[in-house]
Structures are given as structure tokens and as C-alpha cells.
Design a protein that fits this description.
Blueprint (H helix, E strand, L loop, with lengths): L1 E2 L2 E2 L18 E3 L7 H8 L1 H11 L4 E7 L6 E2 L11 E6 H11 L7 E8 H4 L26 E7 L2 E6 L4 E8 L2 E6 L37 H6 L2 E5 L4 E4 L4 E6 L4 E8 L9 H11 L5 H16 L22 H16 L2
Parallel strand pairs: 1-12, 2-3, 5-9
Antiparallel strand pairs: 3-13, 4-6, 4-7, 7-8, 8-15, 9-14, 10-13, 10-15, 11-12, 11-14
Length: 343
Amino acid sequence: MKPIRELHDLVPGRLPPQLIEAAQPVVLRGLVSHWPMVREALRSDRAAVDYLHGCWRGAPVAIMTGPPEIDGRIFYNDDFTGMNFGRADAPLPTLMEELLQLAAVERPPCYYVGSTTVDDCLPGFRAHNDLDLSSLATADTTEAPEALASIWLGNRSRIAPHYDLPDNIACVAAGHRRFTLFPPEQLANLYVGPIDFTPAGQPVSLVDLKQPDFERFPRFAQALEHAQVAELGPGDALYIPSMWWHQVEALDAFNVLINYWWRQSPAHMDPPVFALMLALLSLRDLPAPQRRAWQGIFDHYVFNADAQTSAHIPAHARHALAPITTEGAGHLRAHLIQRLRQR
């Protein structure tokens, strides 16, 4: 593994221009060091909890809970019939007070709040703890992306390598986190589990990075050769490009992460995983010659498509081969739904 590239001496709260153009991960040291939340967290966990108390307005949060035996690893159970954690809803202050009480326990149960919208959970938090995303505007959009801000909170935890479709800027507000990233082309070496039965929505690697079983997962050694790693403290941030696999470890008894994610695609586009699911249903089990033929069709119409792909068809007659608009996406989606219902 090698360290993730770092940028220092940043203007607090201001992302460097051209950050996302290279589609490579970057550590942004001190990017959110000016946040009041970070300043309180550097004082003490108690101060950080008190600060969040002041932002909370009563909405419960969804909590993943696991016994001490899982060692913070949010994952499947031993026989893959379910998960090794339970779920509960509770007021955020109640959870945070419990975390403070457990700080002195050597092997505490795991409590993990994941991907909770900040504006719903902590209204007013972003008035003083936020990022300026204007430098992410491109020549095509001329506007900053509309990012969703989420909070991740708990004690020590390990989230297995997974990918996200959106680009992601993860900001450590309290505690320390270790990120281990793998480029998208390492998919075959990560031994990914089911894509439709997952711990938290995304497919995950079945390899435990804390104690990898190279006899069971021999190609994972190759993945590690391409891995990049960084440890972040309060005030630091990390840019995780779309589709990069990443494991996230919360290292302290109290950890808070705020992340911003956005898609570099029109709002009318559906998640590509939908196409993968349909391809598994309709393509994977075809005879090999037919699969190769369909691979060529996908290359022609999707992966290598350009202006010449449909240039021979009158513009008014291109239908699904025309540039997709919001209206066109609606028509295509309705067509697919109708066809699926006919099965």
C-alpha cells in the first residue's frame, strides 16, 4: 500500500480548483479546521457532544448495533443468512451519551450511525460548518454541484471496501479515521459479495483487511499492491472519486464524519446498477457466442458511442438513440417497466 497524495496549506473551507478532473483520491489536510465543531472536538469528546446537542432538533437516527464480538466490523453473519448487527432508532443525544459512557470500556458494543442527512438530523449545523463547493463548477455546468451532506457517527467501526456512484468529500469532524482505497479496476481482486443482499446498500469486499485470509482470497494480495491509505484527524478531508472502492475505519471511542456527495451526471439518469441487474437477468447466462455478440452491441451503443453511432438515422426518428433528456428518460423508463410487466 502507498499513501494517498496530500495537499496542505489550503484555504479553510475552500476546495482547490481542478480537484476532481484527475479522478484520483486526494487528502485535504486542514480543509475544515475552521469548523466550530472541529474546534470543540479537539477540546474533548464531551465538548463535541455538547455542540451537537445544540444543533439537534428531535429527529431520531437509525443506528446499527453489534456486540463486542464483531470488533466493530459491520458485516454479514457467519453463514451469510443475515447480518452481524441489529438496527434501532433513538434520539441522537441518547446515543452520544451512551458513547461517552462506553469510552472507558475495553471491548464495547459497536454503535454506528451511517449516511444520515445532516439537514434533517442537525438543522442549523451547516450554517457554521460547511464547505464552499463553487470551485467544482465545470465549463459545462458553470454552477457548483448540488451536494448531499450526510453525517456518520459512532464508536470504533470497520466498514468493508465498497464503492459509491457519487463523488465524495469526507470531512473528519471528530476522532480519527483510516481510509484504504482501491482503484475500480481492482474489482476482480477484492472478492466482492452479493450485489442484491448487502450490509448497507452497496456490495462489499468479503476480505477482512484487519486479518486477510490469503489462502481463501489469494488475489487480494494484488489488490493491496494497488491500495492507497491515509489516516485523517479532526479538520482533515479526503476526496474519494466515483467508483473507487474504500474501506473506512473509525479509530476512536467517539467519531463524527460529515461527507458531501454529488453525481457528475444529469438528474434524470438512473443508477447504472439497474442496468447491471437487468444484464444479469437477461445476458449473463446466454451461450458464449451470444454474449460476445451482445458485448459488441453494448460497446457500439453505450461504451464507444459517439455522434456517428446514430448519425445515419433522421434526428426525429432516433428515439432512445437520441441524447437523453428528462422527457426522453421518462419515456424510456416507462417502456422498460411495461416490458418487464409483460414477463
